[in-house]
Amino acid sequence: MGFVEILIISTGLSMDVFAYALSKGAVMPEIKKQNMIKLCGIFTTWQVISMLLGNMLTSIPAIASLAEDAAKRSNGFSIVIFLGLGIYMIVKATREKPTEERKEELVDTKQIIIWACITSLDSFLAGIGFGFLQIDFFVMILVIGIVTCAFVLLGVSIGYWMGCQFKRKAVSIGGCILLFGGVELIIRTIYYGC
């Protein structure tokens, strides 16, 4: 799996974070640097840690042998993980209720940590998928960190200026990107045998 594919999957994973940042930006009376740093730091840290934990899980001896078998058997686990995450995000977006926008003076750290934990579950599973594909985790972590931070900044800014109207679409797009990554893995496995 190349850099572009890692970037695409990281983008899909970060759309969940983008949707939360969008709703957070919509309720901020003004964009403050300290709030942006807090949001970026918490979400990026959770995404990176979750990705690392998922990746490290595949290095446990019993699971590592599964990873070797999975690599020999056409990357099946990774395909299932990425397709499953994509379908999950699309279904979640269709069931989500519209957000009520009302200004909040404080950015509640506890609430952000809870949402960061929830949105990072996808990254944990993707870390397992990347581990089965034996991807260089330094590149993977660097990319997910940069993409997550960028999507938090973008989400808060768009939410602040335009509101929450794009939240469901963002989560759906993230799901479609993950589906695309899974389909690309299937095609690559069928045609190139890797």
Structure commentary:
By secondary structure, the protein is mostly helical. The chain has one domain (3-192). It has 7 helices and no strands. Helix 1 packs antiparallel against helix 7 (167-192) and helix 2 packs parallel to helix 5 (109-132). The longest helix has 26 residues, at 137-162. It is globular. The mean pLDDT is 76.
Q: Which structural class fits the helix and strand makeup? A: mainly alpha
Indicate how many domains the architecture comprises. 1
Largest sheet: none
Model regions low in confidence, pLDDT < 50 over at least 5 residues: none
Helix content: over 70%
Mean pLDDT: 76
Q: Please report which band the strand proportion falls in: under 5%, 5-15%, 15-25%, 25-35%, 35-45% or over 45%.
A: under 5%
Radius of gyration: 17 Å
* Counted beta strands: 0
- N-to-C SSE series? HHHHHHH
For the terminal residues, how far apart are their CA atoms? 9 Å
What is the approximate shape?
globular
Number of helical regions: 7
